[in-house]
Design a protein that fits this description.
CATH superfamily of the largest domain: Dihydrodipicolinate Reductase, domain 2
Helix content: 25-40%
CATH topology of the largest domain: Dihydrodipicolinate Reductase, domain 2
Number of helices: 11
Strand order of the largest sheet: 8-9-10-7-11-12-13
Shape: globular
Number of domains: 2
Strand content: 15-25%
Order of helices and strands: EHEHEHEHEHEHEHHEEEEEEHHH
Radius of gyration: 20 Å
CATH class of the largest domain: Alpha Beta
Length: about 325
């Protein structure tokens, strides 16, 4: 079955969602809506699709609603889509900016039989899946230390020229809730639930923002493993997202979709091929340019959602799973305060 897709919000990331709807093989882009009519109509024209004059009109005319509004403005379009009985909502990261708002949309969707899929595209990349598989197989032995680093760069204009970047109401937070939440999601996916943590958050490299641009946190996972998070948008020129997993029988370093290290005591013949396959590339991902990202993960996530609808199963990253990273970031903020 092919599912019709509508996009709410036509900012920068909307084009990636439009591409995903077009290229998943199981969906097609039908319509868009933006509260700014001129922007919405321009986007619709550029993609050759319908423009809906109201949010209700969009939500009543498609199977899947993609929510690409500012982070703190996800709840209302999700609730509107649920009220109109769409089959699914596909919500850009983070699905909302507080655990309470996440819970509200998740409960409403469950009650109405609507599927929520969160967009954490990094989980769909092959190297990340290999790391998770190795953890689940026990190849690391006892996991002892996990670390997430996202030392990125954003100019002052990135914040000052935006009506929502760097605001508590719409960004929900800074480098942790916006840029770093992909790495935090991977760390949580790899390490499991966090038992306790301590943290510091500061605005050190930008003026006039309400949120942090630099943060560190120390974690103790329920498994007993320890963890570290380091993040900033004040690190010129910006460096690739990096996740390290260390254990008593092996270690891996994931940098974007490359593996800088893939070493195990129980070496397997395929390990050398893995190292060759996932060598570093010259690209920087979103380290310095928010839009210098591939659409691969969004396309894979969109296809997974369509497959889930066909098969009557949960998507790979459902609402509850997507909310875990928000819960962890919220805990880090509370600890910092």
């Amino acid at each position: 079955m092919s599912y019709s897709v509508g996009i709410v919000g036509t900012g920068a990331i909307a084009a990636v969602h439009a591409a995903a709807a077009r290229e998943s093989g199981k969906t097609f882009l039908k319509a868009v809506y933006n509260h700014n009519e001129a922007k919405g109509r321009a986007f619709a024209s550029s993609w050759g699709v319908d423009y809906c004059a109201t949010l209700d009109e969009l939500c009543s005319s498609v199977d899947i609603v993609c929510v690409t509004t500012p982070s703190g403005a996800h709840l209302d379009p999700v609730m509107c889509a649920i009220a109109h009985g769409v089959k699914a909502v596909f919500v850009e990261k983070p699905i909302e900016i507080t655990p309470g708002r996440c819970d509200q949309m998740i409960k409403a969707a469950r009650d109405a039989g609507v599927v929520i899929a969160g967009v954490f595209q990094s989980r769909f990349y092959p190297a990340a899946k290999l790391v998770k598989q190795a953890i689940d197989e026990g190849r690391f032995g006892r996991v002892t230390l996990l670390e997430a680093q996202f030392k990125w760069y954003r100019s002052q204009e990135y914040y000052s020229d935006s009506p929502w970047h760097g605001t508590k109401a719409l960004d929900g937070g800074g480098v942790l809730m916006n840029q770093g939440i992909h790495a935090i999601d991977l760390l949580r996916w790899f390490g499991g639930p966090v038992e306790s943590l301590s943290s510091f958050c500061s605005a050190l490299g930008h003026e006039g923002i309400e949120v942090e641009d630099t943060a560190v946190a120390s974690l103790r996972f329920e498994s007993g493993a320890l963890g570290v998070i380091q993040g900033t948008t004040a690190s010129w020129p910006g460096f690739k997202k990096r996740i390290e997993v260390c254990g008593t029988r092996g270690s891996a370093i994931l940098e974007e979709d490359a593996l800088l290290a893939w070493e195990f005591q129980d070496a397997r013949p395929e390990d050398e091929e893995v190292r060759k396959r996932f060598q570093p590339s010259s690209g920087q991902g979103g380290a310095a340019d928010p839009m210098a990202i591939s659409s691969f993960g969004h396309i894979a996530a969109m296809k997974d959602l369509a497959d889930a609808l066909d098969e009557g199963r949960e998507p790979f990253i459902n609402g509850e799973e997507a909310a875990k990273a928000v819960e962890l970031v919220d805990s880090i903020y509370k600890a910092a305060r």
